[in-house]
Each structure stands twice: as C-alpha cells, then as structure tokens.
Design a protein that fits this description.
With about 400 residues, the protein is an alpha/beta fold. It has two domains: about 220 residues, Rossmann fold; about 150 residues, Response regulator (Rossmann fold). About 40% of the residues lie in helices and about 20% in strands. It contains twelve helices and 15 strands. The strands form two sheets. Strands 7, 8, 9, 10, 11, 12, 13, 14 and 15 form a nine-stranded mixed beta sheet that branches. Strand 2 and strand 3 form a beta hairpin. Helix 3 runs parallel beside helix 4, helix 5 packs parallel to helix 6 and helix 11 packs across helix 12. The termini are far apart. Bound molecules: P-hydroxybenzoic acid.
Length: about 400
C-alpha cells in the first residue's frame, strides 16, 4: 500500500475541489437567480387547486391577479412573475411544497394558503428563510399568535374572529344551549373556541362539541346526533365542497326549519349556486358580505364578474387584498424587495382599501376589521348588520 503523503494528497484535493466548484457553478446556472432589482418580482402561489378547497384557491389567485392587472401588471415599478404549487390541502406535503417555492424558484413572496394545517408548514419555512409570506385565507391562530413574525402577514382573518362574532350574536339573541359541529383540525377547532369564548362569556353554554376528520363528508350520523340533543341552535365550521354537502344534507334530514343552523360565513360563501334552496335564510358572520354599499366593492365586483365571468366571494377579496398589501410594501421600497426591514414596516402600517371596507393590520399583522351578520337570500349573503365593529384578534402569545 502506498502511504498517503501530503504531497500526494494535494493534487487529489485540488481535483475534488475543482469538481465541487464546477458543480456549484452548474447549480447556480441551473437555478433561477434571486430577483435582481429591476427584474420581475417573483410571486409564489401555494394554494389548493384540487380537492374540497380547489375553488377557494382559484378565487384567491383570480383576485390577486386582477389587482396586479389593474396596476398595469406592475407593483413598485416592477413586473410580476408567477410560480404555482398545488398544496392539495395536505399538511404532510406542506414543508416540501413551500421549500420548492422558496429554494428552487427563489420567490420574493409566498402567497398561501387556504388550509390551516398546511399553513403551519409554510409559516415554518418562511420563518427559517426570512421569506415574505402573505396568508390570503388560512385562519390558523398561531400564524398571528405565538408564531407571528416580522415577515408573516395575513389579509384574511384568524380562526378565532368569525367564531367570536357569531358567539356574541347568538348570546345577544338569548340562546342558551348550542351544539357545535366541524372538521377536526385547527380551522374548525379554533373557530369553535372563538365562538365558545364569546357565547359563554354572555351566559350561553356549548353543550357538546362534535367533529369528523377533514375532509370527510359523511355527515349523517352526526346530524342524527345533533337532532337527538335538541339544542337551541347548532354552530358549524365547514367550507368549500364540504360546506355545499353539509348544508344540503342538513336540509335533506328535515332539520332546516327545526334547529337553527349558524356558522362562520365560509359555510355559504362561494357555495350558494351549488347549495340552492337548502341554504336559503341561513345566517352567518364574516368579514365580507353581499350588498356592502361602498364604491370600492362595487367596482371590484363589476371588474371581477367581467374578467372571470363569475361572482366574487370572500376568497377573491382576500386574494385581491393580498396583492394590495404587497403593493404597499413594493411601492415603499421602490421595487427593491431586498430592503426587507423597510418592506415589512410599510406593509405593517398599510391601510388597505378593501372591498370589505378599509382595514389596518394589528401588531401581529392580522386584519382589524368589521364582522358582518349576513343572511342568505337567493344567490347572495346579504348584509344585515355589523355584528362586531373593528374586531382585533387577541394575538395571544405574539411578541413583535
Ligand atoms: C382554514 O383551514 O383555515 C380555512 C379553510 C377554509 C375556509 C376558512 C378557513 O373557508
């Protein structure tokens, strides 16, 4: 055996180092470079394009793109380039999917997502990489609670908010005994928690909390159980395709005129066409409604209907506002997305002229906004009143 002397080792090391250097150079040319000032701003949509939340993801993307189009295709003086990942509302795939956008595509901002469980994975990746994240739907309380961060923003709601608003409404109506029913994951559980907090503070009682795994739609046994409990009312969280099925099953079981059904507004938003008669008269609470008489909303709805041949819903509004929030930041830094401190500061103090009504962000970067009481009439969630004005999520555990 030949002894390895330093002199023999040196050329070998050089060869290995050369190979690594070449590999590095290749990796750099093979990967897209980070957005250069003057180049396009890279926006990464991580949204559900399949499954029970597919329509929600599309509405968010539509709303976002529409705002950018209205600005002539540019924010902060720079054109926008889009990247897309279908997150399938699958929390297990979330870290890998988010990493694709952040590391492979090197986006300047991730816009996502809908599902609270998937959101946890995105938040983790965004925090690790100090990547700007705008959440255009998922309400997971942690994102603007214990996991809040300077780079994490939300243009939708916290799960606590719409539930809390409905808890207050039902308590004020003098209802005493309520059963809750939802999918067993953060969105449903936290929305029930918000409901319970407000409802029980004013003398109501949640007598039973029922649930089934997401995205199951075998509601029959649970509907029978609710009926047997004879509550004053039932409060639910369902959304998308699952909400369509639940509202129809509830009516088909003959309970529509027997036990009052209430929910956060996702139960009837973007779903009325498919729910038809089964949804008529349902009351819900949400940060958007049909029939808000502000000019911003009127123009937004006209443009949306013209562009997409569809009526907008809350998801489209949240996507539109995600683009508005990004615009506020991009304008402040004149398109230089590497000026992160200035970017975040401008976004945090932005006032968003939303179709829902103007809103600002809390210190934890969650909208402080009015919650409307709405009632289904035909194909509309008609606004009845403001249930809670300027409701701020308590942001428990957020230190910013
Ligand atoms: C969520 O998972 O946070 C979620 C999903 C759909 C909604 C609302 C919240 O409509």
């Amino acid at each position: 055996m030949r002894r390895i002397t330093p002199r023999r080792l040196a050329p070998a090391c050089l060869a290995v180092a050369t190979v690594f250097a070449m590999a590095g150079a290749f990796a750099q040319t093979a990967q897209p470079a980070p957005a250069a000032p003057g180049g396009k701003i890279k926006v990464g949509f991580m949204l559900p394009y399949t499954g029970t939340y597919a329509a929600l993801g599309t509405a968010i993307e539509n709303g976002f793109r529409m705002y950018v189009q209205q600005q002539g295709g540019k924010l902060g003086g720079r054109e926008i380039e889009y990247f897309k990942v279908d997150d399938e509302s699958d929390p297990a795939k979330a870290p890998e999917n988010a990493t694709k956008l952040v590391k492979r595509d090197q986006v300047d901002v991730v816009v996502g997502t809908v599902h609270s469980g998937v959101q946890m994975g995105i938040v983790k990746v965004a925090k690790e990489n100090n990547t700007l994240l705008i959440i255009p739907n998922a309400g997971v309380d942690e994102a603007t609670g214990p996991l809040c961060g300077p780079n994490i923003f939300r243009t939708s709601f916290s799960n606590w908010q719409p539930g809390y608003a409905m808890g207050q409404v039902l308590a004020e109506r003098g209802l005493k005994k309520v059963v809750t029913l939802t999918w067993k994951y953060a969105a449903g559980e936290q929305s029930v928690k918000g409901f319970k907090e407000a409802f029980e503070a004013k003398g109501g009682k949640v007598v039973k909390e029922l649930s089934l795994p997401f995205p199951n739609v075998e509601f029959q046994a649970l509907i029978t159980e609710v009926a047997s409990l004879k509550p004053d009312a039932v409060f639910v969280f369902f959304a998308g395709g699952g909400a369509v099925k639940f509202v129809k099953d509830w009516a088909a079981a003959g309970l529509k005129d027997k036990i009052p059904l209430y929910g956060s507004g996702f139960l009837t938003d973007g779903t009325l066409e498919a729910q038809g008669n089964a949804a008529q008269g349902l009351e819900t609470t949400l940060h958007y409604a049909d029939g808000l008489s502000n000019a911003r909303d009127k123009n937004f709805r006209l443009d949306y209907a013209k562009t997409f041949k569809l009526q907008p819903d809350v998801y489209a509004v949240q996507g539109y506002d995600a683009a508005q929030l990004l615009a506020a930041g991009a304008t402040a830094v004149k398109g230089d997305m590497t000026r992160k401190a200035d970017l975040y500061k401008a976004m945090g103090s932005a006032k968003i002229d939303s179709p829902r009504g103007a809103f600002t962000l809390s210190k934890a970067h969650n909208p402080v906004q009015d919650f409307y009481l709405r009632k289904v009439d035909g194909r509309e969630n008609k606004v009845s009143s403001v249930a809670v004005k300027a409701l701020a999520d308590p942001a428990r555990g957020c230190r910013l």
